């Protein structure tokens, strides 16, 4: 988050009323805004939302090519002034109109996909146990977590900690043998990876430690790995106008 400048003393700087300010004509200009809370924020008028969100986004450039973004509700802005107008807008093209129905559809699909993926993340399990679950899920996508146990529902087989071949239980011996074989393949693959890391001079335990914190799993890291970087929900109604 950007550091918010505190209340400022009265200056000769002229602030216009946002009610009469044409945001679309000044996208890309350097501006300062004053909020109802007595704060002032400065930066490039990066984009604005004229829909339900009714937001204004300012970009404040930092060192080494970094930038902070200030997101402000237009209703909270009581004054705005232009610090440096954009020299030329001739090179800017009008952005294409966004199909709101398509955005809503993509948002629903992304949220539904996330709801499915989040159940693949174990709670209070080790990184190795999560890796095993993900390995089994590739061929048995009906497997689920039941507390600490991995359960393959179609085979009625469960795997208890410490998740080795002897931890497999189930009524059908053929199903047990099948999952035992999968666990063996998983462990063989990890052994090969550990041997390869030793040859490369890296610590093989580092991969098993990733996704844990103080001996407990880092749920944020696991969520990102298991969910494959699920995208955020699509913009809400109104879209975001950039360079309009």
Automatic annotation (TrEMBL):
Biased segments, Low complexity type: 226-244
Start and end residues of each stretch annotated as Disordered: 190-244
Domain AD per the UniProt entry, residue ranges: 96-191
Bias (Polar residues): 198-213
InterPro entries associated with the record: AD, Lsm12-like, LSM12_ABD
Pfam families from the UniProt entry: AD (PF09793)
Protein's recorded name: Lsm12
Phylogenetic lineage: Eukaryota, Sar, Alveolata, Apicomplexa, Conoidasida
């Amino acid at each position: 988050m950007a550091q918010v400048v505190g209340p400022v003393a009265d200056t000769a700087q002229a602030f216009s009323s946002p009610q009469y300010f044409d945001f679309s004509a000044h996208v890309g200009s350097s501006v300062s805004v004053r909020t109802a809370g007595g704060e002032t924020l400065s930066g490039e008028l990066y984009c604005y939302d004229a829909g339900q969100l009714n937001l204004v986004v300012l970009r404040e450039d930092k060192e080494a090519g970094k930038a902070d973004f200030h997101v402000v509700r237009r209703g909270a802005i009581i004054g705005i002034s232009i610090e440096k107008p954009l020299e030329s807008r001739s090179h800017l093209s009008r952005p294409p109109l966004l199909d709101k129905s398509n955005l809503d559809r993509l948002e629903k699909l992304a949220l539904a996909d996330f709801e499915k993926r989040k159940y693949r993340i174990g709670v209070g399990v080790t990184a190795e146990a999560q890796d095993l679950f993900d390995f089994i899920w590739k061929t048995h996508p009906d497997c689920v977590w039941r507390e600490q146990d991995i359960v393959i529902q179609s085979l009625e087989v469960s795997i208890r900690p410490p998740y080795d071949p002897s931890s497999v239980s189930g009524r059908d011996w053929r199903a047990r043998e099948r999952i035992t074989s999968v666990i063996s393949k998983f462990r063989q693959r990890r052994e090969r990876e550990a041997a390869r890391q030793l040859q490369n001079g890296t610590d093989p335990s580092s991969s098993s430690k990733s996704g844990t914190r103080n001996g407990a799993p880092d749920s944020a890291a696991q969520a990102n790995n298991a969910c494959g970087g699920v995208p955020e929900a699509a913009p809400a109604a109104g879209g975001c106008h950039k360079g309009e």
